[in-house]
Every structure is written in C-alpha cells, then in structure tokens.
Amino acid sequence: LTPQGLELEMKVERKLLSGEEVEQPYEQRVIKKDGRKAILMLTTSLLGDEKTPSFLHIARDITDEKRLRENLRLYANQISKAHEEERKRIARELHDDTIQIMVAISRRLDNLISEHSNMPEEMLKPLERVQRDIDESLIRIRRFVQDLRPPTLEYLGLLPALKELARQVQDQSDIEVGLEVKGSEWHFSPEEELLIYRVVQEAMRNVWKHSEATKAEIRIEFGDEKATVTVSDNGKGFEIKGDSEFLEAGKLGLMGMRERAHLLGGSLKIISQPNAGTEVILTIERSDHEIKTG
Questions:
Q1: Cis peptide before 151, with omega less than 30 degrees from 0?
Q2: Would you give the end-to-end CA distance of the chain in angstroms?
Q3: Separation CA 11–CA 246 (nearest Å)
Q4: Percent of the chain with pLDDT over 70
Q5: Nearest CA to 254 among 179, 192, 208, 202?
Q6: 196-251 pLDDT, tens per residue?
Q7: 230, 182, 226: which is closest to 203 by C-alpha?
Q8: C-alpha dihedral over 127, 128, 132, 135, to 10 degrees?
Q9: Which of 63, 148, 152, 192 could be bridged to 87 by S-S, CB 3.0 to 4.6 A?
Q10: Alpha-carbon distance 253 to 105, whole Å?
Q11: Cβ distance 44 to 57 under 8 Å?
C-alpha cells in the first residue's frame, strides 16, 4: 500500500471496530511487486470481535476501467472545447458580418423614408414594416450571439454572468427569476466556469420553454467539500426517465447537462414529477479548487 492507502485502510478498520458506518465499496491505490500502480475497488468486512479482530477484503482491479474512463473524459473534453470554439467563431461572424450588414440596411431604409416622407402612404407603410422587421431581427440575432458566447462570463466571471442570465430570462418572459449565493466563492478555471454556465443556461432554457412556471431560482452554495448549483422552478414538472429514454425522446439538452457535469468531475441530479416543479442539481467536489479572496 502507498502511505495514503495505508492511512485510508487504518481509518476504515477503526470505523468498523467502533461500529461506524463505512461507505463501501471504496477506492484503494496500491503498488504491485513489479512497481506498477493499480487501483482497486475494495469492500472490507469485520470478522471476529474487538478482542480478536480480523478483516476480510474483497477487491476488484479497476485500473484499466479508470484509465478508459479518463481517456473518454479527455476525449469528451476535447469535443466540448471544439464545440465552444465553433460557437465563438459563429458568434464572431454574426457580429462582424451579418449584424453590420443588417444595421447598414436599416440605416439606408431610414434615410430613404426620411428623404421621401411625402411618398404615398401605401408605399411608405410597407417600408416602415420592413425596417421594424429588420430591427426586431437585429435584437434576436444579438441575443443569439450573446447566448453563443456570453461576454460577461469571459470578462467578469461566473457569478456576474449568472446574474445577467437570470435578468435576461426574467426580462424576456413572465417568469420571476431569483439568484442566491451562499458561502465563499471558489476559484474555477475559465473552462470550468463555461461548463457550469452552460448547465445553468440549458436548465433555464428548459424552464422558459417547457415548464410553464411563474417563478424560478438559481442557488449556488459553496461549501468546504463541495459546491452545489441548483436551478428550481414551480412549473408543471415531468416524469423522470432513464438516460436512454431521454435520448429516444430527443431531450438532448438534459443529456448535454449530464455530460458537462461529468467533465467537471461532478454529478447532476434531476428531481421532478408532474405538477410539482423541477430541480436540477449540479454538484462539484472540492478537488483542488481554491476559495477566491479579495
């Protein structure tokens, strides 16, 4: 056993001797006789009593399984980065090309209408309608660009971006959206902040489009060992199904949230039932994240 593994083993045995509950099976790292490292999934049972204790260990080697999972995680992470780069490229092209052209057309129409204000009304009204349609399209495209690559997230960080997201959903819908933050904020990498933002964004999109809710809340709680991000609503809810049924039903957004949670090394739980609202709970283990200061 490694020194850390030996310490873990002694801790498990002490708990079993004192009658405390032990979460099993648990991972144990060992070094083989040939020097190679291995990861075991262990279940430990107490035999005998406190005076003459002995322990039964049942082990399963999960080294290859862990390596495969890590490789899959790295592969999924690369795919996620490629998707975000494509989002960034599309947002940039829409902003630098499409939006600029539409703004120029709108200005030309405005000049045309101003210079020919005495034209017959049956000609003027259609031009004004076209200009209104262009201006409304510009608003939608700018909103779409912001969804693709939120500048607040890039320049100010996660919490300001989530605050802006909550305000946007509230402004664009009849849903009252609250944001609550508890604890000392952790430091996440830009990639992790983006993954968390995408989970919340997709959850809020589902609230807006499908829940028929009147109230929703984003709650973020930073604890000593884990951070929890919860999106809840008072909408119509739905029946929880397995991942395969989500895919068959075309609910790729929910599957995408699970994949992003996995890339964060965390977990995603969805709690819902018909007529009882929905909760989406993202949990991220402490790992090596640091608390922000100052």
A1: no
A2: 41
A3: 41
A4: 89
A5: 202
A6: 999 999 999 889 888 889 999 999 999 988 999 999 999 998 887 655 455 444 45
A7: 230
A8: 70
A9: 148
A10: 36
A11: yes
pTM for the full model?
Answer: 0.64
What's the chain's Rg over C-alpha atoms?
A: 27
HEC string of the chain? CCHHHHHHHHHHHHHHHHCCCCCCCEEEEEECCCCCEEEEEEEEEEECCCCCCEEEEEEEECHHHHHHHHHHHHHHHHHHHHHHHHHHHHHHHHHHHHHHHHHHHHHHHHHHHHHCCCCCHHHHHHHHHHHHHHHHHHHHHHHHHHHHCCHHHHHHCHHHHHHHHHHHHHHHCCCEEEEEEECCCEECCHHHHHHHHHHHHHHHHHHHHHHCCCEEEEEEEECCCEEEEEEEECCCCCCCCCHHHHHHCCCHHHHHHHHHHHHCCCEEEEEECCCCCEEEEEEEECCCCEECCC
167 vs 193: CA distance, rounded Å: 19
Whether 282 shows a pLDDT value over 60: the answer reads yes
163/218 Cα distance (integer angstroms)? 9
CA 131 to the chain's CA centroid: 38
Token representation of residue 250: 């075309």
Total residues belonging to the chain? 294
User: What are the boundaries of each domain within the chain?
Assistant: 3-61, 67-148, 156-291
* pLDDT value of position 230: 96
Which overall architecture, per CATH, does domain 156-291 show? 2-Layer Sandwich (3.30)
Q: What is the pLDDT of residues 61-118, one digit of tens each?
A: 888 887 877 776 676 667 767 777 787 788 788 878 888 998 998 888 888 888 887 8
Residue found under tokens 């779409």:
144
Contact call for residues 138 and 102 (beta carbons, < 8 A) = yes
* Chain Cα centroid distance, residue 24: 28
